[in-house]
């Protein structure tokens, strides 16, 4: 494979994956649920040092959702995480009691503070992740249904045009 064909092969691979995602057996709700799970998990992955990523797999299995949709939602969540992290911290601060203190014996004060900040991010991220997952589920599902319906219409029109054109035989 030459270097000039690399971008073309990547483009073809991406198109194949897109087509597979659009033709997923469970339909648009299958993919949209996976997307929602991906966003949900991403909202508290950073404060758990990436370990929350592994939560995607059992959630997908238990809820019968799309792994590809979840990975796309996870990447989308990474893109929007920085501005949402401030909201996660605020929500975590609202939910957790004001008098909460974390004190690890023989640990410096700054570590206790960092653990409290991470706790706020985790709690707020779980709440905000559930809200964002629910909010994104419906637009993603409707968009996928729209694209699938357009594809069906296009195939139907193409089939009708092939039937209308009859070969000239005498």
UniProtKB/TrEMBL annotation:
The keyword Lyase does not apply. Pfam families: DUF2062. The keyword Membrane applies. Keywords: Membrane, Transmembrane, Transmembrane helix. The chain crosses the membrane at residues 21-40, 46-63, 70-95, 115-138. Residues 11-151 form the DUF2062 domain. This is DUF2062 domain-containing protein. It comes from Paenibacillus lignilyticus. The lineage of its organism: Bacteria, Bacillati, Bacillota, Bacilli, Bacillales.
